[in-house]
Structure formats: C-alpha cells, structure tokens
Specification:
This is SET domain-containing protein. This protein has 4 helices and 20 strands. With about 270 residues, the protein is of the alpha+beta class. The strands form 8 sheets. It has a 4-stranded antiparallel beta sheet with strand order 13-16-19-18, with no helix packed on it. A 3-stranded antiparallel beta sheet has the order 3-9-8, with no helix packed on it. The chain has a 3-stranded antiparallel beta sheet with strand order 4-6-5. Bound molecules: S-adenosylmethionine.
C-alpha cells in the first residue's frame, strides 16, 4: 500500500518520502506503527544533553523523535546507529495532510480523504507536537496553497484546526486540546518533567517580557493540577491577578522557571 521513494530536492537534506502504491479510500488504515513497543522515551533535557555529547546524532534525534507526553519524546530504539525501525516516522509534514492518526488507536495511520496512486502520503506534524518540538520553526516546504510557512507547533490551539483535525491528532495532542479548557500556557513556555523528583514545572522556552501573560486558569484550579511551582515571595518570577492570569514580574530568559507565591489554592 505504501512505497518509500526519493523526494529529490523537495525537503532538502531529508530526501525520503512515502507515496501511495495503490489507491486508498478515505478512512482506510494505512500503517500500523510499532513505535512505542520498545522505543526510548527521553526528556528534552536528556536529548539536548545527548546532542551536546554526540553532535552527529542531532539531525536524527530532532527529525525522528516525536512527543508522547509533556516533556517526553519517543526516540527510535535504533537511534545510535541512525537507523529507523518504523516507516511511520518517514511521513513528511503537509499543511494540507491526507493522513492522520486513528482516533481510537493513536498507533494507526489512516487516510483523511481518498488518495490516488503515486500521491505523497503526509500528515500534519501539528498532530504530534507542541511548541516544545525539537524542530520548532522548521521552514515548511509542503507546497500546499494554505502552507503556514514556518512550523510553530501551536496550531492545536486554533479552534478551526481543532474542529477539522481533532480526530486525527495523537492521544497526547488530543489531551493538550482538552487541557486548554481549564488552563492555558503561553506558546513561549514548556513543561519540564526532568526534575530530580519527576514533578512537572513550567519554564520559558524563549524570552518573555515583564508584564506578559504566561498562563491563565479557569474553573477550580489548585496547586495539584497545574505545573507552576510555589516558592517564597521573594523568589517568585510571576504573580497571579484576580482574573487568574499569571503575569511575568520581570523579563524572563529562556529556561527560567515560572514560579508563583501562593497558598495551596490559587485563588
Ligand atoms: C520525520 S522526518 C520525515 C522524513 C524525511 N523526509 C527523511 O528523509 O528522513 C522529518 C524531517 O523531514 C523534513 N520535512 C518533513 N516535512 C517537511 C516539510 N513540509 N517541509 C520541510 N521539511 C520537511 C524535515 O527535515 C523534518 O525534520
């Protein structure tokens, strides 16, 4: 059903692409991924450390990892030999994708619409990744008329995108969409779970200016169900206002932890 071919110049260095070897009907299952069976899960910090110590692995780790949970990236178990073990990882991104993940089973790739023989098989990388993606900012070469340009990995926040594609997102991205109804984190933040006790914390992904809103909560949000750590008053980098908006108290450089001074319940 699927054939791996040379993409020529289309994607630059990553010159492989998958095409339909036969006509595929809308809804048809195309690929059963084995990723996750015994692949590695690594945090962003662990991957960045690996890249620092083994720079030749950079492209492989950035291209072929994907987000499975907050701050947890699935890495092919064969990463040290720079070989893929599952072709699901070779689907290229398109802003007008013809494939997505099966909503009942995040490990199956299905056709969103009928696909003609010879057509390239693509999914939208926004189905798999958030702003903390290791390829954030990639210049998109999909050539679709509606191409977004640079891939920012924040499209899961867009209501039109959700309506159209929620059912094709990975289970992780679906959980991030549902989470938006009670808590919102700025696109400039990421969750870190690689703390010594494995609790989650929120950090600046890029420069955040004093006065910027970095998070907003609604409903009953307490210290137990969000990732902003409580600290002493003089250590807090942010403050929360009467609208449950978390605001930067000073300019925050990348990696700075978003912290608050509060007592148990947020408001
Ligand atoms: C998971 S790999 C996809 C397969 C890749 N083409 C290859 O030859 O191994 C992801 C990488 O492919 C390239 N890629 C995929 N879709 C792209 C797109 N729409 N625009 C630019 N580069 C893309 C980028 O280098 C990206 O990091």
């Amino acid at each position: 059903m699927v054939q791996l071919i040379d993409a020529g110049e289309k994607y630059g260095e990553g010159n492989q692409m998958l095409i339909a070897a036969e006509p595929i009907a809308a809804g048809e299952k195309i690929w059963w991924c084995t990723c996750g069976d015994d692949d590695y899960m690594m945090s962003r910090d662990e991957i960045l450390h690996l890249i620092e110590t083994q720079p030749h692995l950079k492209n492989f780790l950035c291209w072929y990892s994907y987000m499975a949970e907050d701050d947890m990236y699935m890495i092919p178990r064969t990463f040290d030999t720079q070989k893929n073990n599952d072709e699901c990882i070779l689907f290229n991104h398109s802003c007008e994708p013809n494939c997505g993940f099966d909503s009942g089973d995040g490990n199956t790739i299905v056709a969103i619409r009928p696909i003609a023989i010879g057509e390239e098989l693509t999914y939208d990388y926004h189905f798999l990744e958030t702003e903390a993606s290791l390829i954030r900012g990639l210049e998109c070469k999909c050539q679709a008329p509606t191409c977004v340009g640079h891939i920012t990995f924040d499209r899961y926040r867009d209501e039109e995108f959700q309506k159209r594609y929620y059912q094709y997102m990975s289970p992780y991205l679906q959980s991030r969409v549902r989470e938006l109804t009670t808590k919102w984190y700025s696109t400039k933040c990421f969750t870190r779970s690689a703390t010594p006790n494995k609790t989650k914390s929120l950090h600046a992904l890029e420069w955040i200016q004093a006065g910027e809103v970095v998070a907003k909560f609604s409903g009953s949000v307490s210290a137990e169900n969000h990732f902003i750590r409580a600290v002493n008053e003089d250590e807090a980098t942010c403050a929360i206002d009467e609208h449950k908006q978390v605001i930067a108290l000073c300019d925050l450089t990348p990696e700075t932890e978003i912290t608050l001074y509060y007592h148990g319940k947020l408001l």
